[in-house]
Design goal:
Blueprint lengths: L17 H12 L2 H14 L4 H19 L1 H63 L3 H14 L4 H28 L3 H14 L6 H26 L3 H14 L5 H23 L3 H17 L4 H18 L3 H14 L7 H19 L3 H12 L7 H14 L1
Length: about 400
């Protein structure tokens, strides 16, 4: 290969000449003959330069050694290959480290931030749904898990306080319901008042509190009626039971209906027992028996009482003595002490009176029968009938 060393101006230093760079390039590639040719051409340009002459001698010697030892060259190439591989591995390691750092610094924080936002959003939604559904324990557990993630979040703390308050209010509400079901009105009012101090608009609190107050007042009336009932104060009991019914028909409806029936029936019996021959009092008794039968229309005891009272009323108001005697005898046959023994006493009087009339009219046998019937009655004093019966029997003998 020829080298044109006159094509351009010659630099002052041979090492600045292009031919020097060309020779060094060949030298790096191991092309010894071309490197020697280039340096020889450079020597022609700088024939007196000691450095160029020494460089040519060195390259020539190296070329000779390299040609004489080909295996050493191969080993040098292998070492260069190893160095290249090691450099490549090192570069991969460096790139991996850079990538890991980039992941830790930029990518991972962004991913974790987005994940936490999504996680907290889902947890918040679950907590809200639990609160709406009244599942306060579940809501509190979810919020406490959120607080672990965000320990200084004021909104979570506020929500936990609200859930705690809701749990307390729910417990008070449930307790009040149990107390009202047990008709513990005073304690129910206390519980509802405590709930009202926390939230006056809670559920149907206002309605429950009004119901409890009304029920308490009704219960006080009811207890008063119960006391009168137990003491046999039938008129007072009836009046108070009816007041409770007028205020709230559904309050202890079955119990009050039973009490009204018994009170009307017992009061009617009491009136009949003390009526003697007072038709107005018997009429009052009949009205109470009608009230009792309005509660229990087919009650046999009440029906019997009304039938006897109606019979007695007719017996004491009729102008027909025979009718009165027949009615009073029917009553006596069924209930000898009816109307506090007033019925039997009246029967006795009517029989003796009729017997006297028949005796005066000469109807001795009929008179004797009435005197006998009168003498057989359980009255306070039957001596008149017995005396006249004895007198008639003596005359007949």
């Amino acid at each position: 290969m020829s080298h044109d060393v006159t094509a351009s101006p010659k630099p002052k230093s041979p090492f600045d000449h292009p031919t020097y760079g060309e020779g060094m390039n060949y030298l790096d590639k191991g092309q010894w003959q071309k490197a020697i040719a280039a340096i020889e051409a450079l020597q022609q340009l700088y024939p007196d330069n000691v450095d160029v002459r020494d460089l040519l001698a060195e390259i020539t010697m190296r070329a000779t050694v390299a040609q004489a030892q080909p295996r050493k060259k191969a080993r040098g190439s292998a070492r260069r290959m190893v160095r290249v591989v090691m450099i490549g591995v090192l570069m991969l390691i460096v790139c991996s480290i850079i990538g890991l750092v980039a992941f830790k610094v930029w990518i991972e924080p962004t991913f974790l931030h987005e994940y936490r936002i999504r996680q907290l959003t889902e947890m918040r939604q679950a907590a809200d749904e639990a609160i709406i559904g009244g599942r306060y324990t579940e809501a509190r557990q979810t919020l406490e898990e959120m607080r672990i993630i965000l320990p200084e979040d004021a909104d979570i703390d506020e929500s936990l306080q609200r859930v705690g308050q809701l749990e307390k209010m729910s417990a008070l509400y449930n307790e009040a319901q149990k107390q009202m079901a047990a008709e513990e009105w005073a304690t129910a009012i206390e519980t509802l008042t405590a709930l009202q101090s926390l939230d006056a608009q809670y559920r149907d609190l206002a309605e429950m509190l009004a119901t409890a107050h009304e029920a308490q007042a009704l219960d006080e009336q009811f207890q008063s009626a119960e006391a009168d009932f137990a003491n046999g104060e039938w008129a007072n009991a009836i009046a108070t039971y009816e007041q409770v019914h007028q205020t709230n028909l559904t309050f202890k409806f079955e119990t009050i209906q039973t009490r009204l029936f018994d009170s009307h029936l017992n009061y009617a019996r009491e009136l009949i027992a003390s009526a003697n021959t007072d038709s107005n009092q018997v009429t009052t008794a009949l009205s109470h028996l009608s009230e009792a039968l309005m509660v229990r229309p087919v009650d046999q005891a009440a029906l019997d009482e009304r039938r006897l009272a109606e019979t007695y009323f007719t017996a004491i108001t009729t102008d027909e003595r025979d009718q009165a005697i027949d009615l009073l005898q029917a009553i006596y046959a069924e209930r000898p002490d009816y109307a506090g023994n007033a019925a039997v006493e009246l029967l006795y009087t009517n029989l003796v009176t009729r017997a006297d009339a028949n005796l005066a009219a000469g109807q001795t046998e009929i008179a004797l029968s009435d005197y006998q019937a009168a003498a057989d009655l359980f009255v306070v004093d039957s001596s008149e009938a017995q005396d006249k019966l004895a007198e008639l029997n003596a005359d007949s003998n």
